[in-house]
């Protein structure tokens, strides 16, 4: 089974896609511990993205700032609002993956 979150180069910018399946045993027992360990030990930045109404506030991911509010999952927003959030997340990930010192002038 593939991870619930896509990751950037080197796997250092996971974007957990949170929706009702957050309660599944596989997610709880396999995916979340691996993600949290990477955040703690490897210094990866986590960008939780709430797709659907879920138990985010009760999860171990609640200590991370979600890209959108738990009361406003992507599924409840219009396309323009969704795109605004997705662009902001992409820009934040790009800034991490391509720091100014690594960019060519």
Explain the overall architecture:
The chain has 105 residues and is mostly helical. The chain has one domain. Helix content is 34%, strand content 4%. It contains two helices and two strands. It has helices at 25-41, 79-97, and strands at 17-18, 49-50. Strands 1-2 form a two-stranded parallel ribbon. The chain is flat. Residues 1-10 have low confidence and may be disordered.
Keywords:
single chain, 105 residues, mainly alpha, two-stranded parallel sheet, 2 helices, 4% strand, disordered N terminus
What is the general shape?
A: flat
Order of helices and strands: EHEH
What is the total domain count?
1
Stretches where pLDDT falls below 50 for ≥5 residues?
A: 1-10
User: What's the rounded overall pLDDT mean?
Assistant: 80
Strand content: under 5%
Relative helix content: 25-40%
Number of E strands: 2
What summary fits the major beta sheet?
2 strands, parallel
In short:
By secondary structure, the protein is mainly alpha-helical. Helices cover 34% and strands 4% of the residues.
SSE layout and pairings?
Elements: E1 17-18, H1 25-41, E2 49-50, H2 79-97
Parallel strand pairs: 1-2
């Amino acid at each position: 089974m593939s991870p619930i979150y896509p990751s950037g180069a080197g796997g250092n910018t996971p974007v957990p896609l949170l929706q009702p399946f957050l309660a599944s045993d596989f997610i709880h027992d396999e995916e979340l511990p691996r993600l949290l360990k990477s955040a703690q030990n490897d210094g990866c930045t986590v960008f939780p993205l709430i797709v659907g109404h879920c138990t985010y506030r009760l999860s171990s991911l609640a200590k991370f700032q979600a890209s959108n509010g738990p009361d406003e999952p992507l599924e409840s927003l219009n396309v323009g609002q969704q795109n605004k959030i997705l662009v902001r997340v992409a820009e934040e990930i790009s800034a991490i993956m391509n720091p100014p010192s690594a960019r060519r002038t």
